Amino acid sequence: MSAETDLIKLYSQRILALAADIPHLERLDSPMATVRKRAPLCGSTVTVDMDVADGRVARFGQDVKACALGQAAAAVVGSAILGRTREEVARARDQMRAMLKEGGPAPEAPFDGLEVLMPAREYKNRHGSILLSLEAAVEAFDAATAG
Q1: Which of 65, 101, 115, 130 could bridge to 106 as Cys pair (CB 3.0-4.6 Å)?
Q2: What pLDDT is stored for residue 41 in this prediction?
């Protein structure tokens, strides 16, 4: 297979549809925490605003400047994150990292929609962008609950 064919397969219709419809794609007014993460390899950035109440994500907003793969990941995260505990978000981050870097299975529900990014395993230069939303969400959760 040519590199072009591989890229076409990687940017499947499902990934492009997710990238075009990212939930919570707005910044929050006066969030408890804001975290900005950047993938140095490609320059993608994600900024997450979060409020936490009773140990769960109560409000979530994100600004996503990333490739279609990073955008698709942010879309899945945005659609699943409200009401989640820190442990659930951290588990999704760890499972996503293992899926990309170690050939592990897709993250468990409610983040199982990230399975669509399984073909990105072969594109190590995209892993950072794909992980940004989950990494920022875990850090924002920690910042919102610190002190």
Answers
A1: 115
A2: 85
